[in-house]
């Protein structure tokens, strides 16, 4: 079972609707459920495998809606043009890399990726590493359930 340490204020479905309208996007249902329950925070278990070549990292903090530190909307605006289009950063690691969620109708929708901010890339996806096919699978991997 997934456990999160969060002191963030609870949000409602209406808060999510306002967020989506303001930023012109639609969040996947599993991620909306997570926001309604936790609104970001610090996972009790946070290690994940990036890839065989890249090794492991950990979730520093999941962003929440309307939070002073780690605000999902502010992060979305700051990283606009930095991370590939069609993604929203939902968390970071201690080295300043981002855990991103596919939000656009594309081959990436609902998939979770790791974005290395300091890696040279020839195309916008060269520094993106697939972590999970969906948000729920990513959360399960934090808890050692690496079977898809």
UniProtKB/TrEMBL annotation:
<dbReference type="InterPro" id="IPR018958">
    <property type="entry name" value="Knr4/Smi1-like_dom"/>
</dbReference>
<protein>
    <submittedName>
        <fullName>SUKH superfamily protein</fullName>
    </submittedName>
</protein>
<dbReference type="Pfam" id="PF09346">
    <property type="entry name" value="SMI1_KNR4"/>
</dbReference>
<dbReference type="InterPro" id="IPR037883">
    <property type="entry name" value="Knr4/Smi1-like_sf"/>
</dbReference>
<feature type="domain" description="Knr4/Smi1-like">
    <location>
        <begin position="10"/>
        <end position="141"/>
    </location>
</feature>
